[in-house]
Amino acid sequence: MGDLKISTLNLTKRYSNSFQLFLMVHSHRVFRGFFIMLLLFHMILLLVPWIEIKIPAWPILKIIFAIGASLWPFPTFDMLSEENLYLRQVLMKTLEISVIMLYAIDLLPKIFIWRQNVLWKFVNIVILSQMMFLLPVSIIAYDKIALPTDTMKLRIFSISFCFVIVCEILSIREQKSLRFLKINQRQQEKQRQIKQKIQEFSWCEIVKHDTPNDCWIVIKDKIYDVTQFLQYHPGGNMILDGAGGDCTALWYSYHPSKLIKQDPPQQYMIGKVRDYQQYYSYDDDFYQNIKEEVEQMIPRNNWQNHWILFVKGFLCIIGYLACLYYYVNYCTLLSAILLGFFAAQADVNIMHDGNHYAFSSNKTLSFLAGYVLDLTFSTSVVYRRSHNFGHHSCVNHLELDRAFDTTFPYIRLHPLQQRFWYHKYQHLYIWIIYTFVNFTDVFGTFDEMQWFSNYPCRRGYVSKLQVFLQIIVKILWISLTLIYPSIKFSYKVAFGMWFVYNAVHSYNYALYFSVNHWTLEAGVVDNQNINQTNWGKLQIQNSSNFALDSFIWTHLSGGLNYQIEHHLFPQFAHTRLKEIKSTIQVKAQQAKIKYFEFPSFLDALISHYKLLKILGSQDKI
Q1: What are the protein's UniProt keywords (predicted)?
Q2: N vs C: which end of the chain shows fewer Cβ within 10 Å?
């Protein structure tokens, strides 16, 4: 009897492990990606006409294919003749076997392992059976019977995609359960560790933990080891951009109001920051109330995926690629101006939303949208780090906002910065400096990758692959826009048009950002006067809008004219920011906070000019 209990216990243990193993394999993102990739290849192979290609058949190949055909349990077709091997048939058979195997792996756990009722398993058996027989039969019919092409395309399309849709619908609950299976196990271990004495760490120790295999973040004064949570984070690898640093502001601005009312999961907390300085207050209900009202008005799942943004993105990409082709092949003044204009439009309309994860609720699509900046030959990983963490988290804060580091000593933008003699001319030479913004942005990539901010001393994660990709991007940039035109035309023409293209790109990009924060109406702060001001209030006080009623400026600037709304809700598609303007204006008025908007872009630009002139001639405003 004792042996029977032990045997039953071991069987239960093996069953549980098998269940978890199959579940892990089925829902692993690598498997899912490979599954989709093979499906796409399979569909391309079946739907695209192919020219028959014959290669000599070695004797050993004839033996192998003869054995394979005899062992293959499903209907098959000839892949070789006496002398030749038909390459198209081999490719068809390879993909047929691969897809069947992956489909089987996808469905077998549902049939034999997952704890579901008999009807649920029967549905999966029917699906698997239909797929295993209909797929090879369809290929044979396409190859031998020569049914009408349109009929075959429709048949194969319906068989494959109906099957995949049903599979995904039936397995969605199991996929979600897996995501937290490992997390729950680790949570129990973390909870045991948390019961021990809380340790304190200095910033110099925290910044060392900034890789995917060792990732710490700070929220308020607490340190969280999120290494095991990275692959399950709904925002993807965005955490890595702030690895080893303070992510408090992004925790509050990117997460739902219900979630930010709570502290982050305590099972990940490993300690506290020694001598932590918190400059902003997050306890005031001001920002929380705005977020709750906006979430009630527009559900979070509608913040992205705006069809207007998708149409704009498509047109900007097509326009940019067409202008790049025009520039490379003709290198005229018009081509240089158009290339610079459309490169900037791709940046502000696609890249900016993508790097804020505002382009789409699909994190992969938003991630790709962010990489449009690499397509225009800059770098998205540096932008996310310096912009999301080094600007949005601490807007117009002298010691923290990255914008002050990158412009000083050439430009004086804060009253507490040292004033040099040449600053009294900065309102004049600023227009020359803006010409070179794109040059400094592109050429400063590798310097920025080693950037350490003033406080806290944080460096986000940059992989060797990203460095390598940036080397390739810069080589392509120089080759396509400078070297090739120099060879095809002349170096004088190439360098002249290259300068024009970068100048137009710089102006179209830089001026939109300059008039949002560096004006007489936008506030500035520093470590001495911050005094625990509410973070949400600072986003309004230190920003300014312009031309809110202008359809043209809204779309030309990529919604940057709604700067206040964007800073409060960075995950909001810029084409929908106007929908929340009234709510924020009312809340700001009730709290007696200055909400400022310029009537036009020209008014904002004049205010920017006046600020530069005053800061260049006076120590204080």
Answers
A1: Membrane, Transmembrane, Transmembrane helix
A2: N
- Is residue 112 within 8 Å of residue 170, measured between CB atoms? no
Longest dimension (CA), the chain: 95
Output helix, strand, coil percentages for the chain, rounded to the nearest 5: 65, 5, 25
HSE at residue 559, side-chain half, CA atoms within 13 A, is 29
- Give the whole-angstrom CA distance, residue 337 versus residue 340: 5
pLDDT on residue 58: 77
For 66, the token pair is: 């003869």
Nearest to 47 by CA among 175, 154, 162: 154
Answer whether 358's CB lies under 8 Å from 479's CB.
no
Strands (E), 26-154: 54-56, 84-86
d(CA 131, CA 163): 8
Alpha helix positions (H), 242-349: 248-254, 257-260, 285-297, 307-330, 333-346
Residue 337: count other Cβ atoms within 10 Å of its Cβ. Answer: 18
Whole-number Å distance between alpha carbons of 82 and 494: 59
Sequence-ordered list of residues with C-beta below 8 angstroms from that of 195, at least 6 positions apart, any chain? none
Contact 226, 239 (CB under 8 A): yes
> Exposed, middle or buried, 391 (CB in 10 Å: 0-12/13-18/19+)?
buried
Is the pLDDT at 166 greater than 70, yes or no?
no
Give pLDDT, residue 12. 38
Query: How far apart are alpha carbons 595 and 569 in whole angstroms?
Result: 16
Least confident of 172-181, 387-396, 475-484, 509-518: 172-181
Minimal CA–CA distance to 179: which of 106, 232, 235, 237? 232
Query: Where do the H-state alpha helices sit in 482-600?
Result: 484-488, 491-517, 535-541, 551-556, 563-568, 581-590
User: Does the model's pTM come out above 0.90?
Assistant: no
CA atoms within 13 A on the CB side of 590: 11
Cβ(358)–Cβ(571) under 8 Å?
yes
DSSP string covering 139-168: HHIIIII---HHHHHHHHHHHHHHHHHHHH
Q: Which residues, 6+ apart, have CB-to-CB distance to 53 below 8 Å?
A: 86, 87, 88
CA distance linking residue 302 with residue 312, whole number of Å: 18
Q: 523: which DSSP letter? A: -
Cα 555-557-561 angle, rounded to 5 deg: 100
Is 278 within 8 Å of 527 (Cβ atoms)?
no
Classify residue 436 by its DSSP letter. Answer: G
- 463-487 burial, b if ≥16 CB within 10 A, otherwise e? eeebeeebeebbeebeeebbeebbe
Which tokens belong to 362?
């699909």
Q: Rounded to an integer, what distance in angstroms lies between the CA atom of residue 416 and that of residue 517? A: 16
Amino acid at 418: Q
| Three-state DSSP class for residue 210 | strand
Is the confidence at residue 471, as pLDDT, over 60?
yes
User: Any residues with CB less than 8 A from the CB of 404 and at least 6 apart, and which?
Assistant: 398, 413, 414, 417
**Residue at 357: amino acid letter:** Y
| Cα 165 to chain centroid, rounded | 26
